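Input structure tokens:
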């Protein structure tokens, strides 16, 4: 009997599903219906997902009321009874919302309570991010909309559920370290699978049909050469503002290759030679990228000829991964060669995210051998912070049994900072999974 009060939110979600069906939006209908079904799992994060859905439902009903009443007015039809019915539905939605927010309902969603609010936030933010991208893109940006028109919401919902699941696992003490390389690798594999299928003739797998090379240096070099096409540069910059240099440890489609190669090698050992290359090596490739793009543009070289330079640059990078990163166990490509890695590290200083080492650190060294970005050694421990090449990957955080190294964000405890960081970075990962293709 105690579950009886959940009948009202359950019905309120089904009403929203029926309303979506009326407009032929099968994906949204399915999303509301599955969310109602997820109530039976009694997972604590589902409660927050339903709260957000009912809140949004209130706006959907208010908007529908205005449209219906205007329509009836226009044709001089009676509208008062309709207005009363719609007001009742809005009140019903509000009642369902209050039930979901009540302490009684909180007690009913008792499975996996840990970090449930954070997981609910990941679910909602992922859905918000993808729906904004879908609404604002001038073409069908989601694969579901391309292959099954009208089912985009089903993909958005599925990615929201996936994101909250991944975030729950990553928030566990060792979860971030073990899961990060896997989800990053899966993202990169899907990215290149779509590119490969697109090149084989499945044009729907390409973003706009206009091909460009997946070489990170082109994020900067491309717009300088073309004098336009800033989308990737804007996406890169916004990501850096939100999660600092974590672009290079969670989101870059090429960085995942360097990570994979370095994991084939030994545990990384700090190298002062490679450390010096952090700025010297990447600074040189950054200058070369900008100078080459400007020169090629000034001599009027065609895009198809200029691409040879990018291919050459990309192949050197792959060679460094295969022959150096794999040998030393360090992400040599990303920390000494890729110009965007340096840009991410330097621009990342604008974002408030930091890794810091507490004064009670015992210098046991457990974290040094986890850092594949060559950012930790004895001298950095004395300083209390990693070197510039740190990308907030978090591998060192879970390696410290004494919790002496961790994420920092102004006003938050180390634990909360880690949780908020994972919320943001997993949301971006799921949004990128949905929209990132060439
Ligand atoms: S350093 Fe370059 S290739 Fe490596 S993760 Fe960053 S942008 Fe990607
Ligand atoms: S210092 Fe820690 S968080 Fe920074 S790159 Fe190294 S292992 Fe990752």
């Amino acid at each position: 009997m105690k579950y009886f009060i959940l009948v009202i939110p359950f019905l309120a979600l089904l009403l929203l599903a029926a309303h979506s069906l009326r407009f032929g939006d099968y994906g949204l209908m399915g999303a509301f219906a599955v969310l109602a079904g997820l109530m039976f799992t009694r997972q604590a994060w589902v409660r927050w997902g339903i709260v957000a859905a009912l809140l949004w439902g209130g706006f959907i009903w208010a908007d529908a009321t205005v449209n219906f009443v205007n329509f009836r007015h226009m044709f001089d039809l009676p509208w008062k009874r309709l207005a009363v019915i719609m007001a009742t539905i809005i009140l019903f939605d509000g009642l369902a919302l209050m039930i979901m927010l009540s302490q009684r309902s909180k007690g009913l969603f008792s499975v996996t309570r840990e970090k449930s609010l954070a997981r609910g936030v990941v679910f909602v933010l992922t859905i918000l991010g993808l729906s904004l991208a879908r609404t604002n893109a001038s073409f069908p940006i989601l694969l579901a909309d391309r292959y099954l028109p009208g089912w985009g919401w089903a993909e958005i919902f599925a990615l929201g559920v996936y994101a909250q699941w991944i975030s729950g696992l990553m928030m566990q003490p060792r979860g971030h370290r073990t899961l990060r390389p896997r989800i990053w690798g899966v993202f990169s594999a899907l990215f290149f699978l779509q590119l490969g299928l697109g090149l084989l003739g499945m044009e729907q797998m390409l973003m706009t049909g206009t091909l460009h090379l997946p070489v990170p240096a082109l994020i900067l070099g491309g717009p300088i050469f073309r004098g336009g096409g800033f989308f990737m540069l804007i996406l890169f910059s916004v990501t850096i503002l939100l999660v600092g240099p974590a672009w290079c440890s969670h989101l870059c489609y090429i960085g995942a290759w360097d990570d994979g190669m370095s994991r084939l090698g030994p545990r990384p050992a700090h190298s002062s030679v490679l450390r010096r290359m952090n700025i010297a090596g990447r600074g040189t490739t950054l200058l070369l990228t900008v100078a080459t793009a400007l020169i090629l543009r000034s001599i009027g070289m065609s895009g198809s000829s200029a691409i040879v330079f990018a291919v050459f640059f990309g192949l050197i990078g792959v060679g460094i991964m295969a022959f150096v990163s794999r040998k030393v166990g360090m992400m040599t490509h990303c920390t000494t060669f890729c110009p965007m890695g340096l840009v991410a590290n330097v621009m990342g200083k604008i974002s408030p995210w930091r890794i810091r080492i507490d004064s009670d650190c015992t210098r046991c060294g457990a974290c040094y051998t986890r850092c594949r970005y060559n950012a930790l050694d004895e001298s950095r421990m004395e300083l209390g912070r990693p070197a510039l090449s740190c990308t907030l990957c978090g591998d060192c955080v879970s390696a410290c049994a004494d919790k002496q190294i961790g994420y920092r964000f102004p006003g938050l405890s180390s634990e909360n900072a880690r949780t908020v960081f994972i919320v943001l970075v997993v949301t971006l990962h799921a949004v990128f999974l949905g929209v990132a293709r060439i």
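The chain has a mean pLDDT of 94. Residues 216, 248, 252, 254-255, 258, 334, 338, 340-341, 344 surround iron/sulfur cluster (ligand 1) (CB under 6 Å).
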